Glucose-6-phosphatase (Astyanax mexicanus), 339 residues
Amino acid sequence: MEAVYTHGVWVAEALQTETRRYEDFWLFATHLGDPKAAFLLVFPLAFYLHRRSGVAVLWVSALSEWLNLVFKWILFGQRPYWWIGESQLFVKNAPKVEQFQSSCETGPGSPSGHAMVTGAVWWVVVSALASFLHSRTGSKVLAAIPYLFYTLLLVVVGLSRIFILAHFPHQVIGGTITGVILGVLLNRTVPESRHLWFFLCSSMALLFGALLMYAGLENLGIDLSWSISLAKRWCLKSEWVRLETAPFSSLNRDAGSLLGLGLAQYWKPGGWDLPWIPRTLCLALASMALFHISRFPLPTVPALLFYSLFFLKYTIVPQVVMVVVPGFVHLLTAKPKKD
C-alpha cells in the first residue's frame, strides 16, 4: 500500500496547488458531504417534500454510516494528514500541502464516510426526484438531470476530501462505489410504518453489535484506538481533534436516530397532511431548531456522558422534524371547525 499512499499524497498536493483559490468551495463541499448533514439537512428537506423519501433518507443514513464504521475497523486505512509524517518517506522531499480543521478526523480512513454516506443518501433523493419528473412529464431527458447532479455531487465531495488531506483517492473511490450500492439496496426496504419495537431493536442492534465487535477485536489484541493517537500526534492544532468525529460518536448518532424515527412514528402515525405553504414553514422552523440542536455544546468529560448525550441529541432530531414542528404548524394553520 505504500506506493498507493505515496501516489495519493502527490495527487492531493497537485489538487491543492492547482485549486487553492477554490479553498472555500472545497471546504463547503466537504461540509455538505459530512454524514451529519444527511441527518440535519437532507432529512428534513426530503421529509417535507415527500414523507417516504424523508424516512428513507434517515434509514439509509444510519445504516450506511454504521456499515462505514464497521468497514473502517476492519480495513485499518491511513489518512494522508498523519501518514505523511508517520511514514517518514518525505523527510527530504516534503509535499507542499496544508491541513484544515476538517482534516483532523480521528477514525480510520478507509473507506471515506463522506463519500459513502453521500452516495447512499443522495441516491434516495435523486431517484425519487427522477421518478417524479418522469411520471409528470414522460421525458427521460428531464428524469436524467437529477442523476447528472448526483454524479457531480459525488465527484465534488470526493475531491474535497482529497483536497483537505482527509482521504486518499482510492478510499474516496471505494466509499463512493459502496455508497451507491447501499443506496440502491437500502432504498428498497424502508421501514415507513413499522412498530416502535422494530426501531428499538434496530437501534440496539447497531449499538451493541458494534460494541461487541469492538470488544471482540480488542480481545484479539487489535488496538482500535490507534487512529485516535495518530490524529492527536499529527494534527496541526490540538483543538481540531474533536470527540464528535470519533467512531463512537457516529455509532451513537446512527443508533439514536433510528430510535428517534421509531418514536416519531409511534407518537403520530402517518403524520400531518399539510399543504405546501405550511410544509415550507415547517422546513424553515425545523432547520432553525436543528441548527441550534447541532451547535448545543456537550461536556466531553467523562466520555460516556458525552456519548450518552450525543445519542439523545440525535434521538431528538426525528421528533423535531416529524412531530414537534409539523404539530405546531398544524395548530397555527388549521381552520377552526364550524359548529
About this structure: Residues 2-333 form one domain. The chain has one domain: 2-333. Residues 303-333 form the longest helix (31 residues). The chain has a mean pLDDT of 94.
